[in-house]
Amino acid sequence: MTVRAFSLTYDYRCPFARNAHEHVVEALMAGADWEVEFVPFSLSQVHQEEGKPPVWDDPAKAADLRAIEAGLVVRERYPELFLQVHLALFRARHDEGRDLRDDDVIRAVLTRSGIDGDEVLAEVNEGWPRQAFRKAHEEAATDQKVFGVPTFISGDKSVFVRLMTRPNGDGAKSRWTVENVLDLMEGHPELNEFKHTQVSR
User: DSSP string spanning 132-182?
Assistant: First the structure.
């Protein structure tokens, strides 16, 4: 049986990215046989004013990047804890209302996950996480025409998706939700935009 492989972009600032990533992680934890690449993508860069330097080179935007950079260090150094930290950073921003531009907030998330936050932030300060972040963002923007998060990428197809629900511990429902997204994007290229005029509550 072929393992389903896809990528998914994220920026911790986006609540819809939070929803999509929670569904993917919940499904993986429930046994979904997928190969998923989590691709960092900067909303600060997307919204940077014309004429301003790229956020990667703009000291005024450095704090906007640090949570994702810390996550990239975790993915590299503590891969077994990446998914836990990944969701914890989303929760800190959207459930707890914390400011992920604050190193103390990032450090607290890492500490709760059993990771030395000072060591991770020291690696962030070395600069390689920003280079990795920039490379991933620019490749997604150039190769796949990604403009936002969350964007699902499968082969040469990329689709920006807003999921309105969260998993609430239901791994089977999360798998069904994500599989439906992938089936639509892979099997129905003629469907370019499909948006409800009203949001059910």
Answer: HHHHHHHHHHHHS---SSSEEEETTEEEE-------TT-HHHHHHHHHHHH
Helix (H) or strand (E) holding 94: helix 82-94
Asked if 197 contacts 19 with a C-beta cutoff of 8 angstroms, the reply is no
- In 3D space, the residue among 102, 132, 103, 99 whose CA is nearest the CA of residue 120 turns out to be 103
Handedness of CA 53, 59, 64, 65 (dihedral sign): positive
Q: Across the 201 residues of the chain, what is the mean pLDDT of every consecutive 10-residue run?
A: 93 98 98 98 96 96 98 98 98 98 98 98 98 98 98 97 96 98 96 88 64
* Backbone torsions φ then ψ of 144, nearest 5 degrees: -115, 0
